Amino acid sequence: MDNTLEEAKAILKKYNQEHLLNGYEKLEEKKQKQLLNQIMNIDFELIKSLYDNTKKENSTNDDKIEPMEYLDKYKLNDKYKYYENIGKQAIKEGKLAAVTMAGGQGTRLGHSGPKGTYDIGLDSHKSLFELLCDYLKEEGKKYGVTIPWFIMTSRENNKETVEFFEKNKFFGYQKDKNIFFFIQGELPMVDTEGKILIGEDGLIKQAADGHGGIYESLVKNGMTEKMKQLGIEWVFIGGVDNCLVKMVDPVLMGVAIDKEVTVACKSIVKANPHEKVGVFCKRNGKPGVIEYSEITDEMAEAVDENGELLYGESHILCNLFNIKAVERMGVTPLPYHSAYKKAKFIDKDGNLVVPDSPNAYKFEAFLFDAFGEVDDMAILRVKREEEFAPVKNADSAGVDCPSTARKLYEDFHHLK
Questions:
Q1: Phi, psi for 352 (deg, rounded to 5)
Q2: Which fold does the domain 42-412 belong to in CATH?
Q3: Nearest to 186, CA basis, from 166, 198, 204
Q4: What one-character DSSP code corresponds to residue 152?
């Protein structure tokens, strides 16, 4: 360990982060090893450049933004059955896997466990995980297959998530045969001076690297290899907090296969021109998503000859990828975005600091930033009331909350 300690000291000196070892001597041996391991595995060059970027103005004004074509699922006419049959065949052949991003906690909902274990208040009292699982099993029966399920957790909630599934006998799935768990990547948090923070546990304070980290996590954790062993060619990636997410959609799959694209995404039309959502667009000729903060009023209100919004297709985190695209995106560095947050930390004197206002940067990648890696992709507009019931806020918010999601779920399944 002495050699590693000396190596760590040299690295920290080079990057002006020597404070990370201030409390080293007071840590128990196990924690000392963990801290040194963290230091040896951090890409300090990356962290330095990410911090430097927080000082720069990020301008996208020079980007050429154009509307993107889409298909409306309910206006496909004869093509509906055609696409559906292509997709059905691929699903029957066991070529589809589902990935659920479930690294978050239910804190905003007043729930102390992983978000996926949250009960939205249905009469059945089923958690979000169980609702998704019921759906996958039902779809699997239709096609005579078991759809493999890959669940991305976080360091914070992995143990609790796996224990929840164990307690419920994996809801009929079999661990490491058709249900798999893997942990999302993390990046250190830094203060306004670029110094990496030490958390309450005496270790480096890290935060999840955003949903854009999904590709790298799938590859690094060996999940894409497992998928290939299972004969998977298509991967649906969605979030745990949409209780109406349709992970098995033969029409979406048929569109992707027929159009020979490696990415196919679902969209819903914006509720109004100024709804605060990211929308699909072409950015410098490549597929992408433009954030609502980047859209001018003129763009937001622009319509085509049929009166449809030109920038009206909202990205709802319901995306289908060819496995080759996932593998490629998993080794392609994505841009990171910084978020200024409140973060507890241990100061140089060993005292816990609980800030009243934001004091640190966390860095995250966005899943849709990888869309620019493909030449083209398909977009399928679906109905909000059939496929989008997010659970993001407490009921007091009145939108995207348990009561609104429950109503959408009950209405769709005719439960009331």
A1: -80, 130
A2: Spore Coat Polysaccharide Biosynthesis Protein SpsA; Chain A (3.90.550)
A3: 204
A4: E
CB neighbourhood size of 117 (10 A): 23
DSSP at 309: B
Please state, in angstroms and as integers, the Cα–Cα distance from residue 108 to each residue in 30, 172, 184, following that order.
33, 30, 20
Question: Taking the model in full, what pTM does it have?
Answer: 0.94
Query: Structure tokens of 268?
Result: 């819903």
Q: CA–CA separation, 28 vs 218, rounded Å?
A: 33
Least Cα distance to 115 among 379, 401, 412, 378 occurs for: 401
Number of Cβ atoms within 10 Å of the Cβ of 13? 10
pLDDT, tens digit (0-9, with 9 covering 90-100), for 25-61? 999 999 999 999 999 999 999 999 999 998 876 655 6
The bridge status of strand 360-364 relative to strand 190-191 is antiparallel
Name residues whose C-beta falls within 8 Å of residue 22's C-beta, 6 or more positions apart in sequence.
Answer: 198, 348, 350
- The H or E element that residue 35 is part of is helix 29-41
Distance CA 196, CA 187 (A): 10
